[in-house]
Design brief:
GO terms for molecular function: dynein intermediate chain binding. One of its GO terms (biological process) is outer dynein arm assembly. About 70% of the residues lie in helices and about 0% in strands. By secondary structure, the chain is an all-alpha fold. The protein has a domain of about 190 residues: Alpha Horseshoe (Leucine-rich Repeat Variant). Helix 19 runs antiparallel to helix 20, helix 28 runs parallel beside helix 31 and helix 41 runs antiparallel to helix 42. The protein is elongated, with a radius of gyration of 46 Å.
């Protein structure tokens, strides 16, 4: 008693020495006897077991808890400790909530020791400790949290179902703890409850998530330990229910057909345990997957993967409830959640019949797809066994290739569409032309409408499809499907705007279809005639003209397989597109369109080796009669580029006419004066262009033009050229010289006399001498 009075001394040193002495006396020297505890325990309660803080020193309080722990350990499993259970619990209820972390940690350890010391009696007071222990779950020091979780595990083992209900929620929150040891301790506690808690069969659905979540933990050590604990739980459950599971144990020894090689199938006990509780687990998961807390969504998505793996086809009945939450979670900003949802979908796709998930997912996609739907759909397709999903691909691809879905400019939706196509490509066979077309349409739509941030979605996306469908090359793929796609997009092209999906797809076809372009000339010609109508949207017309010009740069490839249709195509193109487009209209927009039309016409008319653009002179004659007046008019256009292009176009037309023998004297007489006028053009580029094409215009002139009664024309040409022979620009003088040499072929004597007559008046003496020397040499020849 005298020593115990030292516990109340005013001096801290005295109290400390009194505790140490009593520890030595009671623990080390005196035998087991509840007589001593009769005096000691009330003093301990007095000092640290009351609501009012009696012992102010943290160090002394810690020593008192250590003393209590020593007493519990010494008197463990003895009748002497039983009468003091209430005192111990009263003390621990207070010390667990102490502000000093070390006291909290030690007090939680004492709870575990007390439960082990009085296993048959601890249940009478266990539930009183739950609230104080749970209050430690949020403590800053992780060791306090770990010991609190372990203490909770012991307390619940001796409590009623109310205690379990009280701690499951707070314990689940510790699954999101940043410290791996804390999460690992939760798994350990959950595994023990699943094996030893007396009412565990009624609470499996609440305890299972605590352990299953650990199977997908970020830390390998936690994953491995959780897996080992879970396997033990499963084996125990299998043993306990051996009679019920006898048939499955005896006959279901082999893995299901096509079971994913990268997955390890859980033992039968684990699977059955989850399958019998899957309804309650799925309902809770579908709620928590949409939680506002990021960590909760991550852990729930991990748990969903484990649930799908264990439940197998047992999730079929719960799929309708889970899918909306999965769609939402698949749109999460945290990529970990998205990856887990895709993985869970893939696992479900393997076990759940294709017809089942198809009937649930496709109607939702049809009603208005967002990228979350496609993440889930892609996972199901990827996971589904090949032999089961192949027959359903036509319906699936028909839905996602619908205009309302694949005509999208949303970045993430485009990305997921491509991923879905990749998943489908793994399941497709060569005998699926319908599926092939749908995939082709989706990919072309994505390429044509891609978001600027999706710059990687280029025409190269089609290459895997070529391999999947076993085409010999990309041109064969285009040839197989582009005709049908053209028919699909041919819907009022006259009303297209620059952003219209069909116009963007048509532009992609023009730029990349190569020989398939030539194989579909009638369809392309019809769409061009409407989309380039003068009343169509100007910006849309500009873009289409540009694409057509770019395509015509590759005419040797485009027309290599379709030379028979080329003339009809160009006849339609010139008559219905270029002729109306070159007619003068007021305004800057109309001016830009004339320039672009002229540029496109030049690309179109440029001759290519091996392909005759015009079958006969009669066809070309009609087209020339329509084009020539417009091109002559265009030489007076306000845009210098239009004037330049008009000059180049008439030159190309002249070459075609000469080749087909329809270039006449009347054509030359009508044309050359307009070109000569361009020598006075205010823009040097146009003047130079006119001088460069004059030799092409006059070379091989009709025989009638050489005759004497055309002398007036010859004089006009020579006098105009000599006017520019004195130009300050040396390039101009050189070009004039080249033209004079061609004119000399028509009327040498007149050129000679004109030069001699004008030489004294011209500054370009050297040029005149050069011309005269050339003419003399020409005479000698």
């Amino acid at each position: 008693m005298y020593c115990l009075n030292g516990f109340r001394d005013k001096t801290e040193v005295v109290r400390e020495q009194a505790i140490k002495f009593m520890h030595f006396l009671i623990i080390d020297k005196l035998p087991l006897n509840d007589f001593y505890l009769t005096y000691v325990c009330p003093v301990l309660v007095e000092r640290v077991g009351t609501l009012e803080l009696i012992e102010e020193s943290e160090e002394i309080r810690l020593e008192l808890v250590k003393f209590l722990q020593a007493i519990i350990l010494k008197y463990s499993n003895s009748e002497q400790l039983k009468p003091f259970l209430n005192d111990c619990v009263v003390i621990l209820c207070q010390t667990i909530t102490d502000k000093h972390p070390a006291i909290k940690e030690l007090s939680c350890k004492c709870v575990t020791d007390l439960a082990e010391a009085l296993p048959r009696d601890f249940h009478m007071q266990a539930e009183n400790l739950i609230k104080p222990i749970v209050s430690c779950f949020g403590h800053q020091r992780f060791r306090v949290r770990v010991e609190a979780i372990r203490a909770t595990g012991e307390v619940i083992m001796h409590s009623s179902y109310k205690g379990l209900d009280e701690v499951v929620g707070p314990l689940a929150e510790k699954l999101f703890d940043q410290i791996p040891l804390v999460r690992r301790t939760v798994a350990q506690v959950a595994a023990r409850w699943l094996q030893d808690y007396r009412d565990r069969y009624s609470f499996f659905h609440k305890i299972l998530p605590l352990l299953l979540t650990g199977l997908n933990d970020e830390v390998e050590e936690t994953r491995n330990e959780s897996t080992q604990l879970w396997e033990k739980v499963g084996l125990q459950y299998q043993k306990e229910n051996e009679k019920d599971l006898k048939d499955q144990i005896d006959f279901l020894l082999e893995l299901p057909k096509h079971y994913p090689t990268e997955l390890k199938r859980p033992n039968l006990g684990c699977r059955v345990l989850v399958q019998r509780n899957v309804g309650k687990l799925a309902k809770a998961l579908s709620y928590e997957l949409t939680s506002w807390q990021e960590d909760v969504r991550v852990r729930c998505s991990q748990l969903l993967c484990s649930l799908a793996l264990h439940a197998e086809d047992g999730l079929t009945q719960n799929l309708q409830e889970l899918l909306p939450a999965m769609y939402s979670a698949a749109r999460d900003d945290d990529q970990r959640v998205v990856v887990n949802i895709f993985r869970a979908s893939e696992i479900m796709g393997f076990f759940i019949p294709v017809k089942t998930w198809q009937q649930l997912i496709l109607p939702v996609v049809e009603d208005g797809a967002h990228f979350g739907h496609l993440v889930v759909l892609g996972g199901f397709i990827k996971g589904a066994p090949l032999e089961h999903v192949t027959g359903c691909l036509v319906e699936i691809t028909k839905v996602i290739s619908d205009d309302s879905i694949c005509y999208t400019r949303k970045k993430k939706l485009q990305t997921e569409l491509v991923k879905c196509c990749d998943a489908i490509s793994e399941k497709i066979s060569k005998s699926d032309p319908e599926v092939g077309f749908h995939l082709f349409k989706i990919l072309i739509s994505v390429i044509s409408l891609r978001d600027p941030e999706n710059s990687h979605l280029t025409i190269e996306l089609l290459e895997p499809l070529v391999s999947t469908l076993q085409f010999s090359g990309l041109d064969c793929l285009w040839g197989a499907y582009v005709g049908r796609l053209l028919g699909h997009i041919q819907n009022e092209p006259k009303s297209w705007l620059v952003t219209t999906p069909q116009r963007c797809i048509f532009e992609t076809i023009l730029l990349h279809s190569n020989s398939a372009f030539g194989e579909n000339l009638p369809k392309i010609g019809e769409i061009l005639a409407q989309s380039l109508h003068p009343e169509a949207d100007p910006e849309s017309r500009l873009k289409t003209f540009w694409a057509l010009s770019t395509a015509f740069d590759n005419k040797s490839v485009i027309f290599r397989k379709s030379s028979d249709l080329v003339t009809e195509f160009f006849e339609k193109l010139i008559s219905e597109i270029f002729v109306p487009s070159l007619v003068w209209r007021p305004g800057l927009t109309a001016e830009a369109l004339r320039t672009m039309a002229a540029s496109c016409l030049l690309c179109a008319l440029s001759p290519i080796q091996g392909v005759d653009l015009f079958k006969s002179g009669a066809v070309l004659r009609q087209l020339c009669d329509k084009l020539a007046p417009l091109l002559i008019s265009l030489m007076e256009d306000a845009s210098f580029r239009s004037r330049q292009l008009a000059l180049e176009c008439v030159t190309v037309l002249k070459k075609h006419a000469s080749g087909l023998g329809i270039w006449t004297n009347d054509d030359l007489v009508k044309l050359y004066p307009e070109i000569l006028k361009r020598l006075d053009d205010p823009t040097d580029k146009v003047r130079v262009c006119a001088l460069k094409i004059l030799p092409e215009i006059f070379i091989n002139a009709p025989e009638a033009f050489h005759e004497a009664h055309f002398k007036a024309h010859h004089e006009l040409i020579i006098d105009t050229l000599l006017t520019h022979f004195d130009d300050d620009d040396q390039e101009v003088r050189d070009l004039v010289f080249d033209v004079l040499k061609v004119i000399a072929e028509i009327n040498r004597d007149l050129v000679f006399s004109k030069i001699e007559r004008h030489q004294p008046l011209l500054c370009n003496k050297d040029g005149c001498d050069a011309v005269l020397n050339y003419l003399n040499e020409l005479k000698l020849d």
